[in-house]
Specification:
Elements: E1 11-14, E2 27-30, E3 38-40, E4 46-48, E5 70-72, E6 76-78, E7 81-84, E8 89-92, E9 97-100, E10 105-108, E11 111-115, E12 122-129, E13 131-134, E14 139-143, E15 145-156, E16 161-165, E17 168-177, E18 182-186, E19 189-191, E20 196-198, E21 201-205, E22 208-210, E23 217-220, E24 225-229, E25 232-234, E26 243-247, E27 250-259, E28 263-267, E29 272-281, E30 285-289, E31 297-300, E32 303-304, E33 308-312, E34 319-322, E35 325-326, E36 329-332, E37 337-340
Length: 353
């Protein structure tokens, strides 16, 4: 009987108002009937393991996507198949430390939201749980929520949009973005043991990403777009590539550092890429550019200080490398690769602003 149980009827959660956060005017009370299995202990702990039905909250949160029908607090314990049904709005209380049991899978067909960036972060933490899937028609907006111990933290199904800001994800895979889906993330920290796949669009700013020894972020669809700015990307021991494009529409990386990976960039297929104010150092290769698409592509005001800076193998690629510092060996097959205005010393502002 895998159904989410709402917090006990008439649960009162004190609203916390702060600049930029989602806050309630007064208290928020959840009222309604409950279906599924769940218990509330004498200590006030609510265990949820099923879906819920009931009326909307008697209060609503400023800036929310609708009236809050559930509030997850530190007393919430999640287990089993947790369904945020279409039409429901579940809000994570600022600073709430939520326990997630092994095997738990959160499916969001409604809305899951939080604003806890100022002060203590909220968290969803456990061991061996599946993660959060945002289904068609669902929405996810998490600000200041740490996610720990999931196998796939954020699974965005085709066509959905989600945002994840000011939080830390520690997971086997931090995210997977389905075809036509969009993930925007700002000031997040993520660590992984396997590559994050992008079929849709990733837009990341001020991302700290540690990929371990696996590949990092991979575009795997002809319409995939990866855009990363002002970020720090790193691996361990020059094993595994960081930005990979098996197929893609565009890769844009700017004002970013990439270190301790095999290839900072490995392109097997992408319609266009532009790299601007990037420093790649401590890597085995700056880039393996096996991309058959003709471009035009560009690398601007960047530093590549690896033993082999670039290995490029396609004959008709148009690539301009301008104002960049290249200290290692370059291997260009295409006669349409042009290195202009080479820098004699490292570009000083090639990295996060």
């Amino acid at each position: 009987m895998n159904r989410l149980v709402v917090l006990a009827a008439l649960l009162v959660a004190c609203g916390t108002s702060k600049s930029g956060s989602s806050s309630s005017s007064g208290s928020t009370t959840t009222a309604g009937s409950t279906t599924g299995s769940g218990t509330t202990t004498s200590s006030g702990t609510t265990t949820s393991s099923g879906s819920t039905s009931g009326s909307a909250s008697s209060g609503s949160s400023s800036g929310s996507t609708g009236a809050v029908t559930q509030l997850w607090t530190s007393s919430t314990q999640l287990s089993g198949e947790v369904d945020v049904a279409a039409g429901q709005v579940v809000e994570i209380d600022p600073g709430a430390q939520i326990s997630v049991a092994a095997g738990t899978h959160i499916v969001v067909s409604g809305a899951l939201q939080a604003s806890s960036a100022s002060g203590t972060h909220a968290s969803l933490s456990g061991t061996g749980w599946t993660g959060i899937s945002v289904a068609s028609g669902g929405s996810l907006s998490l600000d200041g929520v740490d996610i720990q111990g999931a196998s796939l933290a954020l699974d965005l199904q085709p066509g959905v949009s989600a945002s994840y800001d000011d939080g830390t994800i520690t997971a086997d895979v931090p995210f997977q973005i389905g075809t036509g889906a969009t993930l925007t993330t700002d000031h997040a920290t993520m660590s992984s043991t396997s590559d994050a796949e992008v079929f849709g669009t990733l837009t990341a700013t001020y991302l700290n990403y540690s990929k371990g020894s696996s590949d990092g972020i991979t575009a795997v669809d002809a319409n995939a777009i990866i855009s990363i700015e002002d970020s720090t990307l790193e691996g361990v021991g020059q094993v595994g590539d960081m930005i990979v494009s098996e197929a893609g529409q565009r890769v844009h990386v700017a004002f970013t550092t990439i270190s301790q990976v095999h290839c900072a960039f490995h392109f097997d297929g992408v319609s266009r890429y532009d790299i601007d104010h990037v420093t790649a150092n401590g890597d085995a290769y700056g880039g393996m550019l096996y991309n058959p698409e003709t471009g035009p592509d560009s690398i601007t005001a960047s530093n590549f200080t690896d033993g082999i800076v670039f290995r490029q193998t396609e004959a008709n690629v148009v690539l301009t490398i301008d104002g960049s510092y290249l200290s290692g060996t370059t291997e260009f097959t295409s006669t349409l690769v042009h290195v202009t205005n080479p820098a004699s010393t490292p570009v000083p502002d090639a990295g996060p602003r």
